[in-house]
């Protein structure tokens, strides 16, 4: 398996830092997209991995921004060519992470944000165990989860009920994640993810450039 080239010079410092892959997963409707949008506005050095999907576009969604909306044939060809970092079938549609933009983001000194399910998270973790940071978002209650899915008003009642039926299955993977956030208040949840990001960026093993820095300090 190809190892990701995820070392970089972080733009805000001359000290060499490894980019990280921040994964958000949750049952559908718990708030990953909402949290991601705000987070990306606040975090300059974070870039979103835009997934490819065979799902139909929702009202307001933009090709290339929310997803790359592709046919099943196009999706399968991407998989065949090895263009996907990970892929999975979720709620009867195919979803996958195009590899190249992720590699490019990491090489440009960015951290990369993923909104993917537990299957994709397991695949990325298998390829880049040292670079992945996994955050699982829980809803405050099942009633609130259902309310949010209906309030989003972008899916039919049938789709919402299908997603509610699979929520327990998705949540059964919560213990595979490094951090758990109960998304009651969006601002608080965003602040929590920012705290995670900040701490993870400071980890010694993500800052290989410190070796030289400390050597120089000790020789001075
Ligand atoms: N903390 C919150 N309090 C109230 N409403 C919220 C909160 N977080 C998100 N929402 C609302 O819940 C709905 C679902 O949120 P969102 O689309 O972000 O979920 P998601 O986890 O990305 O879902 P999916 O997995 O289907 O993409 C949206 O209408 C959003 O505005
Ligand atoms: N394994 C992957 N899962 C993905 C990817 N992109 C999105 N998702 C997950 O799919 C569901 C449904 O999303 P929706 O936009 O249709 O509501 C959700 O859990 C996403 O996290 C991907 O590239 N790979």
UniProtKB/TrEMBL annotation:
Q: Which InterPro entries does the record match to this protein?
A: GK/Ca_channel_bsu, Guanylate_kin-like_dom, Guanylate_kinase, Guanylate_kinase_CS, P-loop_NTPase
Q: What is its main location?
A: cytoplasm
Q: Which reaction does it catalyse?
A: GMP + ATP = GDP + ADP
Record localization: Cytoplasm
- What's one GO MF term for it? GMP kinase activity
Q: If you read the UniProt record, what top EC class would you report for this enzyme, in one word?
A: transferase
Where ATP is bound, by residue? 26-33
PROSITE patterns in the record: GUANYLATE_KINASE_1, GUANYLATE_KINASE_2
Against Gene3D superfamilies, the record matches this protein to:
Guanylate Kinase phosphate binding domain, P-loop containing nucleotide triphosphate hydrolases
Identify the domain of life. Answer: Bacteria
Keyword Zinc set for record: no
Q: Which residues form the Guanylate kinase-like domain?
A: 19-198
EC id: 2.7.4.8
What are the record keywords, sorted?
ATP-binding, Cytoplasm, Kinase, Nucleotide-binding, Transferase
NCBIfam families associated with the record: guanyl_kin
Name the protein family. Answer: Belongs to the guanylate kinase family.
Give the function comment from the record: Essential for recycling GMP and indirectly, cGMP.
Record's protein name: Guanylate kinase
């Amino acid at each position: 398996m190809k190892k990701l080239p995820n070392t970089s010079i972080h733009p805000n410092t001359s000290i060499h830092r490894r980019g990280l892959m921040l994964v958000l997963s949750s049952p559908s409707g718990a708030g990953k997209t909402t949290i991601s949008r705000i987070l990306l506005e606040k975090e300059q050095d974070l870039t979103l991995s835009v997934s490819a999907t065979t799902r139909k576009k929702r009202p307001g969604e933009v090709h290339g921004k929310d997803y790359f909306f592709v046919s099943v044939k196009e999706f399968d060809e991407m998989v065949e060519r090895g263009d996907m970092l990970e892929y999975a079938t979720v709620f009867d549609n195919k979803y996958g992470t195009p590899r190249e933009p992720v590699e490019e983001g990491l090489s440009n000194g960015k951290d990369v944000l993923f909104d993917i399910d537990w299957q994709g998270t397991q695949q990325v973790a298998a390829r880049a165990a040292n670079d992945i940071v996994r955050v699982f978002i829980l809803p405050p209650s099942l009633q609130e989860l259902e309310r949010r899915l209906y309030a989003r008003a972008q899916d039919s009642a049938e789709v919402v009920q299908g997603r509610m039926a699979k929520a327990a299955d998705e949540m059964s993977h919560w213990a595979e994640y490094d951090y758990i956030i109960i998304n009651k208040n969006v601002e608080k949840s965003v602040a929590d993810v920012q705290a995670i990001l900040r701490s993870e960026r400071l980890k010694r093993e993500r800052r290989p450039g410190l070796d030289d820095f400390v050597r120089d300090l000790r020789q001075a």
